[in-house]
Write a structure and sequence with these properties.
Number of domains: 1
Structural class: mainly alpha
Number of helices: 8
Number of strands: 0
Oligomer: single chain
Helix content: over 70%
Length: about 200
């Protein structure tokens, strides 16, 4: 029973590494809202990854087509809004700001952003199929759910590691590095928004 969990952790970690909307938002939010406020975002992403991995091991879709259309529209607006914010507006680091941030909002964004990455679901389906063809993952329910939970844990591990690495670099490189990186993250989010908008409005 331990093997599916370990395989899931490895799968979640590897799938999360390629740069995309989630990684860009994660880096920018580390500056914008601070360490504690970004944990709800990470948890939202991890839960979405668990859902994707669960769908992959049982061979079904996560949500219906009609609901997916609504989520894609909301996701497009989130990508566009975050992209404009981080690309064109100077972000004041969290430690220099006053006031509270919305943990619920961060969680919802974390839950929705992975759904704007079409390659994510495909990656889990490919990995699950490959593991099954090699006999490393059985067709039973419990091993499949353990794999899915492991995928969420792997995603958590990667995003927390990314947060720690970025904060260390920020402390060493100074504000210029922070602002440049945040702006690059915003540009990446705008590119993702353009891709999502094209798929949404120009099918």
């Amino acid at each position: 029973m331990v093997a599916p969990l370990i395989l899931g952790v490895l799968a979640g970690f590897v799938v999360s590494i390629p740069p995309g909307p989630v990684t860009a938002t994660r880096i920018a939010q580390t500056v914008d809202t601070g360490r504690r406020q970004t944990m709800p975002f990470i948890c939202g992403v991890a839960i979405c990854d668990v859902a994707y991995a669960s769908a992959a091991v049982v061979g079904t879709t996560v949500i219906s087509v009609s609901v997916l259309g609504i989520i894609n529209t909301v996701g497009f607006l989130i990508l566009l809004g975050l992209g404009v914010r981080y690309a064109f507006f100077k972000i004041i680091p969290a430690q220099e700001q006053r006031g509270k941030f919305s943990t619920t909002g961060s969680f919802v964004i974390g839950l929705l952003l992975p759904l704007t990455t079409p390659t994510l679901a495909a990656s889990y389906f490919i990995i699950a199929g490959l593991l099954r063809s090699r006999g490393a993952l059985s067709d039973e329910i419990i091993p499949g759910h353990l794999f899915a939970l492991g995928a969420g844990a792997g995603t958590l591990l990667w995003l927390i590691s990314l947060k720690a690495a970025f904060r260390k670099l920020s402390q060493n490189k100074g504000k210029a590095f922070v602002h440049a990186t945040t702006r690059c993250a915003g540009i990446l989010l705008l590119v993702a928004a353009a891709y999502a908008g094209k798929a949404l409005f120009l099918p």
